[in-house]
Write the structure tokens for this entry.
Amino acid sequence: MPDAGGPFSLHIMPRAVWLLVAAAAASISLALGVRQTFGLFLLPLAVEEGLSPAILGGSVALHNLVWGLGQPVSGAMADRHGAGRVMAGGSLLLAAGLALPALLPGPLTMFLGIGVLTGLGVACTGTGAALAAVGRAVPPERRGEMIGLASAGGSFGQAALVPVAQGLIGGFGALATLSMLAVAMLAIVPIARTVEWQPPASGFGAGPRPSLFALARTALTDRDFALLTAGFFACGFQLAFLTTHLPSHISLCGLPVELGAMALMTIGLFNIPGSWLCGRVSNFMQPERALGAIYLLRTVAIACFALAPPSYGGTLVFAAVMGFVWLGTIPLTSAAIARRFGVADLGALYGVCFLSHQLGGFLGAGSGAVLLETAGTYAAFWPVMILVGLAATAVNWMARPPARALA
């Protein structure tokens, strides 16, 4: 562990580290911010292009699955070759994935662009590679806090891009808005130059590096890592459903369509302090216990929202509560993995855990789209959200702390 009086003291860190944290936050902000806008296109694309809501809903479900499958690979590449190079390539994939359906609208291009290309793009530019670089750059006593601070960057993007996208859709249409967002994603390329552009130092471990498959097999045989991974499924299930379908649910309840964008913006604003605070919490308590508390709070909020009569104020209160813990699971999960296995392969191991998150996201977004198409309402989905959240609380509280935490 670094000496308290060294360059990584509790109060002072080098400027280069702060620049890396800021750049990681900026990349996460753009990548996660743009995917938070997908739900805003659900009904406008149906009106403008005659695309069934199930097309975009299914594309977003595929996006979550591809993101999950790509995250272990992009994380392993970042661990070996540097996060910045991975992020720059992901920027190009994101831009192409948004531009393709904008230029050639149709079911096939929607699935290929939104579903496959943006899924791979977010896997490279979002939390996995960027937060692994942050975890390697900061000392253990500040790792959770700094990862939480970088995670909060995703909330800036959500808070900014959601209302911008809503305004652009109203003024220029859905396809033109997709084109503009595609151009904006190219800004990640220069940002990536400041995030671990060279391969990480080999001092994190001696001997040959294990393969991704070997890492995954070793980690998943650890009972408590397996429990952590199972709990992350619920996170993806709940958040993907809300990101994709909350604006439509609000509209179907007879509330103003603008409230959907406002709810997503409120989630982003409240998650800015929430992510940082959740990262700080990992310095003082077992991350798995904090994760269980987050899942329980989310589940109580979902139950209250589902049972209460639809209202403007109630929707914003629900968004504020959910927003406070929206991305708080990310720094806590990263901290839990680092304590068990160290940081040399943090990107790859976070990706293995995150695959479970995205399998949940695939089911949450996809089944919500199918339910809307067949029943015309989301009423049957809320009890499932509650049960999944309670299960995640239980499995995280079953996890034991590591016998010896690793720096």
